[in-house]
Design brief:
Belongs to the ABC transporter superfamily. Siderophore-Fe(3+) uptake transporter (SIUT) (TC 3.A.1.21) family. With about 600 residues, the protein is of the alpha/beta class. The protein has 20 helices and ten strands. Strands 6-7-8-3-9-10 form a six-stranded mixed sheet, with helices on both faces. It has a four-stranded antiparallel sheet with strand order 2-1-4-5, covered by helices on one side. Bound molecules: adenosine-5'-triphosphate. The site of adenosine-5'-triphosphate has 12 residues, from helix 11.
Length: about 600
């Protein structure tokens, strides 16, 4: 790394620390005052030790008598200093600890808050393991230097006070300090420059290991059934080895630096003893002065290390902070209006000349127009990849179209407030997601107004009431992580019940009942049509029986609406539709 780049890391690291101090000023002040007091007490202690040697111990040797009064005074002073040191360490640790953990909690909340508000397109570009690492180890890395920061600030105060006291004691001994202290700073800077690329690499590898581990766990079933355990272990092992090597590189440098940092003050002590003996002989200073300064240099080593800890952590902090900031500054949020949807009952959904592509990719939807009239069920039918799921995502505004408009009851989706949209429209996705909670918790999601009666009604509509009644604890049954204790069809019905419990006015089912028996699927759609709380339904359907239940069919080919009408009409007039639905039917019979 060039010296310019390392200066940049140092400057940026100091700016990150400045941000931390501005965020938690009171805790920083508590820690810094505690630490400064600690540093001043170290100096005071050195001078008391020198004074005791010079004015109590040496005279006692000379006179063969001990001045008991003075001894008691010395004991009282040492006790006082020790008491104050306990208080100062307490203040320093309290301030630093609270500051560090509060910052970590604040930024963990901020990062996960951003995850929830960023659009699906952003999530598709970022591996889940990386997101975990951003919210966890990157936040920890960013605030790593906070733990020793107040100590380092107090150490700087201590070094300034030490320089003043040294010059007041003797200018020759002060020169040793004037040489040693800048050398300690210089060593710290060299350390930071060398450490920077190693720390950044280690932090990147932590993120990589987390991402690969997450993918391995997620795909555990595939790995096992395909007999790829050894290959997957090898793939993971490569990253683990790289992380190990990068951490060893960090440790090796630290191992070299720590003894150097320890030895410099010892060399200072040696210089003080040699120069002090000469100054003592010439009568310029007394025994007390030499002992005080020598003792000061021996106790300096430990606090000065705090500066090294902060400086050494800065590169990792900058690397973590950059990754955290990348999440916090990510763009692409959908802007919401403040519109509401007046009225009640089933809502009308209208797509008007909608075009859409994913990022810079090819156009997926071409001038798609159709309407789901209020209270009606419309089936979206089309070959795989024709754009059905994309339309489902657009209908509940997970993404916005490139051009054209989508509206509910005449209000364009971007004009609606988030709460108005979430209250009116619900999507049940292809792949159901079940939280590690009870059946009740999964359906109610703590939404106001979703009481047990609403949960039971929703379960009945989703044809899930009977299987839930058969669970060991009914609504209180815990379903396990991702609903592992349930079958695929049961998970789908729970997810459907969750959507229904919010009494949506528009329900979008994206192949949401694929794992459910066809008769149960027909019963679900039948119940939805008969229910008092009827919603308009847009359903992505593959089964002939389901399609036939819809009031209308919108038939898609390669992102274009090529026909709309009833199932009977399309079967009569559209050869492509006829072929597709007949193929679905054949496949069903073969199952
Ligand atoms: N996140 C994405 N990024 C880029 N392209 C995508 C993304 N999601 C879908 N596509 C592409 O958009 C097209 C339409 O996909 P979509 O999932 O909407 O089709 P579908 O009709 O629902 O398919 P299926 O019946 O197989 O679920 C496909 O060509 C697909 O490759």
């Amino acid at each position: 790394m060039s010296s310019g780049a390392s200066r940049d890391v140092l400057g940026r690291g100091l700016r990150v620390l400045g941000h931390a101090i501005r965020t938690e000023p009171r805790l920083f002040i508590v820690g810094a005052i505690g630490s400064s007091l600690f540093g001043l007490l170290i100096i005071a202690n050195s001078y008391v030790v020198g004074w005791v040697i010079g004015h109590v111990v040496v005279p006692s040797f000379a006179s063969h008598q001990v001045d008991a009064g003075r001894l008691w005074l010395v004991a009282a002073i040492f006790l006082g200093i020790s008491g104050l040191r306990v208080a100062s360490i307490f203040g320093r640790r309290l301030g630093a600890g609270f500051m560090q953990f509060r910052l970590q909690a604040r930024y963990r909340r901020a990062v996960t808050g951003r995850y929830l508000s960023l659009p699906p397109a952003w999530h598709q570009r970022h591996a889940t393991g990386t997101l975990l690492s951003n919210a966890n180890s990157d936040v920890e890395a960013a605030w790593g230097p906070i733990a020793p920061l107040p100590f380092a600030v107090g150490t700087i105060v201590m070094l300034i006070a030490a320089m003043i006291s040294l010059f007041l004691t003797d200018w020759v001994l002060a020169l040793v300090g004037a040489t040693l202290f800048p050398a300690l700073f210089g060593l710290n800077l060299v350390y930071s420059r060398r450490m920077s690329p190693r720390q950044i690499r280690a932090q990147q590898m932590r993120g990589k290991v987390s991402a690969v581990a997450h993918e391995s766990f997620d795909g555990a079933l595939v790995v096992k059934t395909m007999g790829r355990e050894a290959d997957e272990s090898r793939r993971f092992g490569v990253f683990v080895d790289e992380l190990r090597d990068s951490l060893i590189a960090v440790g090796r440098l630290r191992g070299l630096f720590d003894p150097l940092m320890d030895s410099l003050p010892s060399l200072g002590t040696l210089a003080v003893l040699l120069l002090g003996a000469w100054r003592l002989r010439s009568g310029a200073i007394g025994v007390a002065d030499v002992v005080s300064v020598a003792f000061l240099f021996t106790v300096l080593a430990f606090p000065v290390r705090a500066i090294g800890w902060v400086v050494g952590e800065l590169p990792r902090s900058v690397a973590g902070w950059d990754r955290v900031r990348a999440v916090l500054d990510a763009e692409g949020d959908l802007a919401y209006g403040d519109g509401s949807l007046p009225g009640a009952g089933p809502a009308e959904l209208r797509f008007d000349q909608v075009r859409f592509s994913y990022g810079e990719g090819p156009q997926i939807l071409h001038d798609v127009s159709f309407t789901v009239p209020s209270g009606r069920t419309v089936a979206l039918v089309g070959a795989t990849g024709s754009g059905k799921s994309t339309i489902a995502s657009l209908a509940v505004r997970l993404v916005d179209p490139e051009s054209g408009s989508i509206g509910i009851d005449g209000v364009k989706l971007p004009d609606l407030a988030l709460s108005a949209l979430a209250g009116a429209a619900a999507l049940v996705p292809q792949v159901p997601f079940v939280f590690d909670d009870t059946v009740r918790g999964n359906i109610a999601l703590d939404r106001p107004g979703v009481d047990d009666d609403a949960v039971r009604d929703a379960l009945a509509l989703a044809q899930a009431d009977r299987f839930v009644a058969g669970l060991p604890d009914g609504l209180d049954t815990a379903v396990g992580e991702r609903g592992t204790s349930l079958s695929g069809g049961q998970r789908q019905r729970l997810t459907l019940a969750r959507a229904l419990a919010g009494k949506p006015r528009l329900l979008v089912l994206d192949d949401a009942t694929s794992a459910v028996d066809p008769r149960v699927e027909a019963a679900i759609l039948g119940a939805l049509r008969a229910s008092d709380a009827r919603a308009s339904v847009l359903v992505v359907a593959y089964r002939r029986a389901t399609i036939a239940l819809a009031d209308q069919v919108v038939y898609l080919e390669r992102g274009r609406v090529v026909a709309t009408g009833t199932h009977a009409e399309l079967m009569t007039f559209h050869a492509g539709y006829q072929d597709l639905v007949t193929a679905y039917e054949k496949a069903e019979h073969q199952e």
